[in-house]
Amino acid sequence: GQSGDHLAVAVLSHVVQSGRAELMAMRRHMADSSKRNHDGLLISRKHFHAAESAVTVDESDRDIYDRLFTLFDKTGGGQVLFKDFIVGLTPIMKGSFDERLLCALQLYDMEGTGMMNQTDIKMVFRSMNHTAGMMGDPTLVLDQLDELVETVFVSIDEELVVKGKIKYEQAIQEFRDHPIIESYLARDV
Hints:
- α2 (20-37) crosses α3 (45-55) and α2 (20-37) packs parallel to α6 (97-108).
- The protein is mostly helical.
- It has a 3-stranded antiparallel sheet. A two-stranded antiparallel sheet has the order 1-2.
- It has one domain.
- The protein is built from 10 helices and 5 strands; from the N terminus they run ααβααβααβααββαα.
């Protein structure tokens, strides 16, 4: 297709220097900062900038992230839900779809258990979807997101499900190969 067919998130992912290591390190900083200065859920722009500095995030990435911070700041109060926001940075990080999705799930999984329930995985997809929408890209409607997660939970190998949670690292391929995601990714021609 023409270059105009490219999804904005796909284009940005070739520009953004930060990968999984930087995002994981920023999450650690933001979690600490949020516990100290906020309610453990929110992060201010100032404390986000401090996390970027500590991790030495590339200057051009910081500009992009700053714009996304503004978009995620629904009330305009200079604060965002930090888990929602850091996960929202994964669609534009460098890497394949699989790497981005795995990183998004790992960022959301604060305890590092490797296991997640349906609600949490839906939240991860919502944050990623949110970023795509803000970039003017096509998005999945919430019904599609719910259906995606629910059908993967039903179809996945029983050995990967423990007490309503799945071992998400082994489920990445199931998500990618799901018709809903396949048709979504096919738009990036």
